[in-house]
Specification:
The chain is an alpha/beta fold. It folds into 2 domains: about 120 residues, 2-Layer Sandwich (Enolase-like, domain 1); about 260 residues, TIM Barrel (Alpha-Beta Barrel), CATH 3.20.20. It contains 15 helices and 12 strands. The strands form 2 sheets. Strands 4, 5, 6, 7, 8, 9, 10, 11 and 12 form a 9-stranded mixed sheet that branches. Strands 1-2-3 form a 3-stranded antiparallel sheet. Helix 9 links the parallel strand 6 and strand 7. Helix 2 packs across helix 4, helix 3 runs antiparallel to helix 4 and helix 6 crosses helix 7. It binds magnesium ion. The site of magnesium ion has 4 residues, from loops.
Length: about 400
């Protein structure tokens, strides 16, 4: 009875390797690595990992100068002949091979991240399992996305209305907010480190009362436009001092923001922890940090409420899961940064599906009308502000290579 059940369970999770067409009982091997850069609202660097098992793994590395060369000119020779199912061993092999030359952070780690995602996709396809299953199984059926309604929308709307492009008007922000909420997003984010039209010295990181009032006006317009239908977050892009953020946060208290993102320059977790204890709003940071070691001080000092690793930058899928687990030891929540194509986005979806302490994944390409066309699928990936966690093998999407070619950047 038990063995019968065990056999059925085993066959449902690990189908018989020998009987599936296209599979081989031989140990699979990596046969090649290449990249294609897609000219999106950022240069999305797609990684292709070829194997001799009849599958190609797809990954994405964070847009960075030089990352293509590191992947194709260097990591291909490190990985060819290796078993793509050994994802974590190969992650460590890549780190060791770049030891002292960018294995801890920067483009070395970004290149590793892109290849790591492609390895998970290949491993999932070879084993005929979705990536979340290989990571330990899913904790949720769909992933909540949050919409970055970045200042570009405000600029465009302002320009259309005949206003000077460099001012950011409250009505334009409110319209952009309403549009995102009407599309089903329950969390929306705006840039708040934007010009008010006054000449000021931003290098001092000090913002005087009229500047604070301009930002308060933008937040008031957005929160009035969306009411209780969505939470509103704001991004300060490392441009404020502790005292300026404290003043800004005091003026924003009535609006119950979801989070304040990157108020201070990114290096000093002590300063952020000081700020975190002195303001009412939850803080979020992390897109400039690499791996568990890059998040350790933030977490141990309880410097933020939300950690925001970027999967194709911080080390890839497994490293992001480990960052979430580190954060969970202090009951902090992860809300990953994401400015990528559908490939980077699906990497975030599989991490978010796996870890309990996940809030929402960023979507930064609402103004790229062909974002969904990159995926060979009948319907949009994001529906009503959510992505259903796919059960297809690997990342669960296939790219439409004709559309990739159409938008290819040389
Ligand atoms: Mg940001």
């Amino acid at each position: 009875m038990y063995s019968d059940f065990a056999a059925r369970l085993a066959s449902s999770i690990w189908p018989d390797f020998g009987e599936t067409p296209g599979r081989s009982t031989e140990t699979p091997e990596v046969t090649g690595l290449s990249t294609v850069v897609v000219d999106g609202n950022f240069p999305w660097t797609i990684v292709r990992l070829e194997t001799d098992a009849g599958v190609t793994g797809i990954g994405e590395a964070y847009p960075s100068p030089g990352v293509h060369e590191v992947i194709t000119d260097y990591f291909e020779s490190v990985l060819v002949g290796e078993n793509p199912l050994d994802v974590e061993r190969l992650y460590n092999l890549m780190r060791e091979s770049l030891s002292g030359r960018g294995s801890q952070q920067g483009i070395g780690t970004i290149a590793i991240s892109g290849v790591e995602i492609a390895l998970w996709d290949a491993a999932g396809k070879i084993l005929e399992q979705p990536v979340y299953q290989l990571l330990g199984g899913k904790t949720r059926e769909e992933i909540r996305m949050y919409a970055d309604c970045h200042a570009g929308d405000g600029m465009v709307e302002a320009a259309l209305d005949g206003q000077p492009e460099e001012t950011y008007e409250a009505e334009a922000y409110a319209r952009a907010a309403r549009s995102a909420v009407d599309d089903g997003y329950e969390i929306i984010k705006f840039d708040l480190d934007v010009p008010s039209g006054r000449e000021i010295d931003t290098l001092s990181r000090h913002f005087d009362r009229p500047e604070i009032e301009h930002k308060r006006g933008l937040v008031e317009a957005v929160t009035e436009a969306v009411g209780d239908e969505a939470e509103v977050a704001v991004d300060l892009h490392w441009n404020f001092s502790v005292e300026a953020t404290e003043k800004l946060c005091a003026s924003l208290e009535p609006y119950d923001l979801a989070w304040i993102e990157d108020p201070l320059p990114p290096e000093n977790a002590d300063a952020l922890a000081t700020l975190n204890r002195s303001v009412e709003q939850p803080l979020l940071t992390g897109e400039n940090r690499y791996g568990r070691h890059g998040f350790r001080d933030l977490v141990e000092k309880e410097a933020v409420a939300f950690v925001a690793p970027d999967v194709p930058k911080t080390g890839g899928i497994a490293e992001t899961k480990k960052i979430a687990e580190l954060a969970d030891t202090y009951y902090l929540t992860m809300s990953p940064h994401n400015i990528g194509s559908p490939v980077a986005t699906m990497a975030g979806v599989h991490v978010g599906a796996t870890v309990p302490n996940f809030l929402a994944l960023e979507f930064h390409a609402r103004d790229v009308p062909w974002w969904d066309d990159l995926v060979d699928a009948g319907e949009p990936l994001i529906q009503n502000g959510r992505i259903e966690v796919p059960d297809e093998p690997g990342l669960g999407i296939e790219l439409d290579w004709d559309v990739v070619e159409e938008h290819r950047k040389e």
